[in-house]
Structure formats: structure tokens, C-alpha cells
Amino acid sequence: MEPILKIESLKKYYGRSTNQTKALNGITFQVMPGEFLGIMGSSGSGKSTLLNCIAAVIQSDGGTIVMNGRQIQTLKGRKLADYRGKEIGYLFQNFELLDNLTGRENILLPLALHNVPEKESRRRLEQLTSYLEIMEVLEKFPAQMSGGQKQRVAAARAMILNPKMILADEPTGALDSKNAKALMEKLAGLNQDTDATILMVTHDTNAASYCKRILFIQDGVIFHEIRRDVPRESQQAFYERILKVMAQLGGGSANVL
CA-to-CA distance for 166 and 127, rounded, in angstroms? Predict the structure, then answer.
């Protein structure tokens, strides 16, 4: 099986000469189809920069990003727009919903932008909103929704075009523990039931325990990796291993997350 995503010697620097920050300093890894991969690291370690490079929101300073055999740094114009819209779905920490649109309109917006037929749009909307249990908020505006409802609407919007990969940037960061757990159960369910490929940046140990593999980033490089022994290893056992790695590598979770 070929990787869906291949990152080779990826670099991104900010500033110049002595004040230069090496946000990404030669990162290399692969993501396989159907994988649920977590990225963890301290603030400023390069996690969000990595996601933004993969999403082609910012340009890297070196290395390659290959998605399904295409080097995305070379994409321009319509091909770049199609990549951002159809091949990746982006789930943000702060939802990024449009306040003047209802839940239904927020979810359907990517389909309208990419000219998906109305019948197919309705089918996808019904399927996703039923799975994510948000049918009751489709006619509400974001201001009328709870944090958990907003993030599930945002998740539906990120998934509505059936992207090859979902990029999730701290998806539980603005949620309480109950809503965070509900969201992660839905994402894990999508990964398990539909083989959705998910790449998630998180500082939340509980959220990370839903992943199948975790890469730890420090100073712009990958310095450790752990993999869940599925199906024999329970989520609780994996969670405890994450904590143990944090203690070993950073003297406690506060230094690693």
C-alpha cells in the first residue's frame, strides 16, 4: 500500500540570520491511507506550521510534500483550489464558521463553491449530519449553538467534499471535556468505519489517545514516535503510554505538550 502523504526533509524558517526560527527543520514522515495520526509538541514546536504547509496555506522553504503522487508545492490556480477544497478538509480549533450563515449553509458552502449537484449535496448533508448528530442545529446560526455543536458543524463542513485527508488543528481546544470526548468519538468512528485519513495536531492527551500513531515534535524535528498496538491495546493503555513518554522526554506533560 502506498502512502497517501509523504513529507521529505520539510523546512520552514521565520526571520533572518541570528534571529531565525527554524519552525520545521527537516521533518520526514509518511501517512498511510486510513491512518489516524497525532502530532504533539510544545507551543512553537512547529505543529501548526506543519499543517499549514500541508494545506498549502504557507509555502515551505525546502523539502517536498507529496499527496497521492503529486507534489503540492507546484500546484497553482485551479489545481491548488481543487487540492484545498477536495483533497483535504481542514478542522480548526475555533470553528471558523460564518456567523451570518446557518449550520446548513455553512456545511453546504464547499459544495456550492465546487458546483456539486443539489441532489448529491442533499445526500451528503443528510448522511453527515445524521452521523454527527447535528440535524437539530441546521437552521440555527453559530451564535445559537453550543461549542460542541459548532465543532461538529465545522467537522461536517470539513468532510462534506469527501476529502482524501482531514487536517485537524487542536479540534478540542475550545471544547469542554464532555464535548471534546463526543467529538473525538465521532472522528475515531469515521476513521474506523469509513477509513477516513486524519492528521491531528493536539496538546490534549485524551484526544491523542484516540489516534493510532503519534509523532512528537520538538525544535522543528520529530524526536519520538509511538504506535498503538491495535486491536490488542486498549485506549486507556495507550493513554498511559503517552503520559509515560511525556514524563521520560520532558520531565512531565507540561514540558512536552
Answer: 17
